[in-house]
Amino acid sequence: xxxxxxxxxxxxxxxxxxxxxxxxxxxxxxxxxxxxxxxxxxxxxxxxxxxxxxxxxxxxxxxxxxxxxxxxxxxxxxxxxxxxxxxxxxxxxxxxxxxxxxxxxxxxxxxxxxxxxxxxxxxxxxxxxxxxxxxxxxxxxxxxxxxxxxxxxxxxxxxxxxxxxxxxxxxxxxxxxxxxxxxxxxxxxxxxxxxxxxxxxxxxxxxxxxxxxxxxxxxxxxxxxxxxxxxxxxxxxxxxxxxxxxxxxxxxxxxxxxxxxxxxxxxxxxxxxxxxxxxxxxxxxxxxxxxxxxxxxxxxxxxxxxxxxxxxxxxxxxxxxxxxxxxxxxxxxxx
Length: 335
Description:
Layout: H1 2-39, E1 48-53, H2 59-68, H3 75-86, E2 94-99, H4 104-111, E3 117-121, H5 128-139, H6 143-150, E4 169-173, H7 178-202, H8 207-220, H9 226-238, H10 246-253, H11 292-299, E5 308-311, E6 317-320, H12 323-333
Antiparallel strand pairs: 1-2, 3-4, 5-6
Helix pairs in contact: 3-4, 5-6, 7-11, 8-9, 8-11, 9-11
């Protein structure tokens, strides 16, 4: 009786073990198939491609774009992978080298790492040293590389010291040298400035003079009065009057931490070729990298008799033909 029970229990245990092994094998097969379906690469072999994450994109938008463009098999699988790989980091705007032969985990790891291409945006009317600070932060430049940008990399020609580094948004390889970035920005300037250079030639105006005056207009004018300020400054040049532009005093005094300090009356006596209170005509080169709007304003200024101007607290411009009129405007709008 006992022997029969033992034999029956032994057979039952062997049957259970066999079912357990079979079930485990089936589970593993299904798990591998499911993993491959959701987390595996979309293709066995594929070339690396540049995937761009545009500024302002959310993680969900990036996930959706990757799924739509066929880089991953499953959106929710990528969410899981990003959550595990991110460790507090987010997907940065920029360009990433990914392939459809990568599994989802590798794609996620690439996206939370540093981008190979970095978006860098420069506002208009800033000087090259300010651009250097922006580039150094975006591209992790060393102090030596930053100094290269400020000196040798941006001074291959006296005409290229300032003003020809077009303010725009660039997608820059993270390993580019200061000289390479400078060449890229000068190339962009050459492209966008070409029609204005042609217009300047037709009007008998040196393109360097257009650029220099535009750099002053960009610092002196308000948002909607660039053509008027350009017309007034051109009137001063035509009549032999000094430009007397405060922006040039700011350029002289500018230093790291405050590149455009508020000028004082004493600054009008600073010894510098850029002091337009002391020297007639244009300064030696642009004081910043101007916008196309200011360049267009210099080439197509407002027709005005004014020689003086000021901006009130609301940034509205008031101009006058005489210095007496300027003093009246000062008393009326600035006191």
